[in-house]
Amino acid sequence: MSRESLKRMKNIIKKISEFYSDLAAQVKKHDMAFKLILAFFLFLTVFYLSTNRFRKEQFDLKVGDIAPYDIKIKRNIEYVDYIKTEEKRKDLISKISPVFSFDLGILEEEKKKVDAFFDKVLEIDNEFDPFERKIEQAKSIKLMKDANLLKILFLNFKENNFRNKAKEVLTKIYNAGVTDLDPESITSLGQTGNIIKIYNNEQGEEISIRARLDDLYYLKTINYFEVVKSIYSSLRWDKVQFLNVYVKRHVRPNLLYDKKLTDEKIVNAIGLVKPVGMKLKKGQVIVRYGEEISESDFKILKEVVKYSSETSVIRGYFVVLLALFILSLLIFKIYSPAIFNNLKTFLFLLSFIFIAVLLTYLFPNFNSFLKVKILSSFYIPIGGFAILIHQLTNYATSFWVLLFISILSMFLVGFNFVDFIIILLIGFSAVILSGKLKKRIYMWYLGLLIGLFYSVLNLGMTGIMNFSEEQFLNSLLMGFVNGIISIIISMGLYPLFEYFFNMLTEYKLMELSDLNLPIMKRLLIEGPGTYNHSILVANMAETATLAIGANSLLARVGGYYHDIGKLENPEYFIENQFGDDNKHQKIKPSISSSIVKSHVKYGEELAGKLKVPIEIINIIKEHHGTTMISFFYRKALEDVKSGKSEKQDMHTYKYEGPMPTSKEAAIIMLADSVEAASRALKNPSYTRLQNMVRELINERFLDGQLDDCSLTLMDLKKIEESFSHVLSAMFHTRIEYPDQNQIKKLENEN
CA 696 to CA 674: how far, in whole Å? Predict the structure, then answer.
């Protein structure tokens, strides 16, 4: 690929990226409206699929089938027979004659041309001139090219008034009407055999005349010889021949099809057609048992099903489904605000439910391939949905979503309560068991367990619903197949959801914890001190989260990434300064404070470019809270005291926050402070380390930095003990090893 092609491709990708960024900004601006639109779209999808399935189950017969029972009307029905109504309209349209505008002015125009022609002939016709001279003169002024016809004209010019005869023939043709359409084309416009000719009389009044198609003249097929003979039956043949050729020169269409007026007539006529109503009485038999379903029977059955669906069931489906969706949205809004308010998570849940609904609708169709039918729930891969939603969210969300999908499945498979119970039991069991998965291979074991659960339920259903042996075997087989399909679906969709919605998952965290990633290598090279600090903070945070039962993997990754913003100016941070070169000695404290604070903002931007999940970005933003940059604030106060600068605003030396909103972010904040402070501690014994940790945690607690997270006092006590233990291991003492020369000296002495 050439450089120009690569450049063009980059530009295209950039434009697409800008487009989606603008779209994301607009969506964020109208967050609630966007959520409601998406939820309504999902509602319409479920509504359509559920009512569509109901129609199919209500009526699954076709023309030519034998009625399996007496098909009766269950209630009085009045409906519009649209087929007969349409036939009535078509019949009326076929009786409407097409409208043509009739131009009488063309005849007068052509008569004037005839007069002009014969006036020129009169000028040429000199009785003393020979015929040859007259013919040459006529040709020279382009009256007529044919010498024979000119000869006939001049021989009979005086005794036969060709002028009047030509006008008479034209009058007959034009009064009848000339059209450039053929009869077949006019018939296709209306099958009445007539047309309507419309023209304005001398008083300006519109006149309509009905004319038969046989009475019209068709430009391409006019027999002028017959027209002349019909008027002048005794006229000699050579004179008829002249008029035949001459008149043709003056004939053109004076009937033009007026589509607008014709369509107006059709529309007005259709408006007068009343719908054809049909009445069916309760108990009336449409088709008796054993009879073949005819075309007319089939039409009635379709109308009956359509009526019953549209008037009762569909209306009920709409109300119940709408209430279910509104209730679900309110539940998530009240009890899971973190999910409802987060557009990414909300969009993920809607997408997940949408895919689950489609598969729930499609999979039971395989039942039609079996001779012996089984419950639809054995086809629905609810286990796959359960595993997937739990791995991508949490227990509470998983149970809510599964309950919602289970209720929707009743609409989709036809309100079978047994199917609902089976789907709910399998789904909840899969959620509980998927929480124990530590390796991906265990998912296949879980698939077999799902199949085993189906087998147990199958045994129960056999006793309750009196399954036949073949139904039992089919259900048993489909249960294990369902378990395998569930695992394939969960493993296949998992990375797609994780990537497109940038979901925080265990596997995503494991990928981000790889210290060989480019961002970590860059941190190691450009800011080695920050790199080592981050590793230590990660270790401390991981140990502390394990102690209180928080997400230890998230804490470890958050520790790795919390200071990546220092890559913008690594040399301005003490851990990356070697020797006596301290760049802050040459600048004002306020500028130093701005540089130090900027690493949070830059870290947030860098993490966004790396597509890091929002939970880690929040740790980067929150790991300093709104704490004071005390070193530079103290230096600023000293400068004010010595007169080197004016009074300083305290907020200039505070981080902008926000304060930690999760346990993991709060632990990263505490670990960051403790690890940094431990570097300045002299003679770090266990007691001194423990006192330092306690003081820093109390300081953050009293400063209100932990107010927005859910850490308890017991959690803080465990964190203190964990930090003290890790730090004492870091600063452990070793015995002094003896010098080798001293050992040799002692050996020689002995």
Answer: 7
User: CATH 1.10.3210: which residues of the chain?
Assistant: 507-730
Query: Rounded to two decimals, what is the model's pTM?
Result: 0.57
Which stretches of the chain drop beneath a pLDDT of 50? Answer: 20, 56-57, 309
Dig out the tokens for 163 from the structure: 């002028």
Quick one: the chain helix, strand, coil %, rounded to 5?
Answer: 70, 5, 25
Work out whether the CA dihedral 595, 600, 601, 605 comes out positive or negative.
Answer: positive
Residue 279 is given by DSSP the state E
**Is-contact 619 563, C-beta < 8 A?**
no
682 to 389, 677, 721: CA distances (angstroms): 51, 11, 20
Place of tokens 């300093």: 624
- Per residue in 234-265, pLDDT (tens digit) is 888 888 888 888 888 888 998 888 888 888 88
d(CA 343, CA 29): 11
For strand 285-287 and strand 77-80, is the pairing parallel, antiparallel, or unpaired? unpaired
State the DSSP string of 598-634.
Answer: HHHHHHHHHHHHTT--HHHHHHHHHTTTT-B-HHHHH
CB-based burial, 119-141: b 16+ in 10 Å, e otherwise: eebeebbeeeeeeeebbebbeee
For residues 161 and 239, the answer to whether their CB atoms sit within 8 Å is no
For the domain 507-730, what is the CATH code? Answer: 1.10.3210
Spatial separation of the C-alpha atoms in residues 30 and 156, rounded to whole Å? 93
Q: What would the DSSP string read from start to end of 502-553?
A: T---HHHHHHHT-TTSHHHHHHHHH-HHHHHHHHHHHHHHHHHHHHHTS-HH
DSSP 8-state symbol, 309: I
**Rounded-to-integer distance, Cα 279 and Cα 236, Å:** 73
Nearest to 357 by CA among 305, 425, 290, 404: 404
Measured in whole angstroms, the distance separating CA 265 from the mean position of its chain's CA atoms is 44
Any idea what DSSP says for residue 251?
-
pLDDT in tens, 309-333: 455 667 777 888 888 888 888 887 8
Give the span between the Cα atoms of 473 and 454, in whole angstroms: 12
**Closest of 370, 367, 310, 314 to residue 49, by C-alpha:** 314
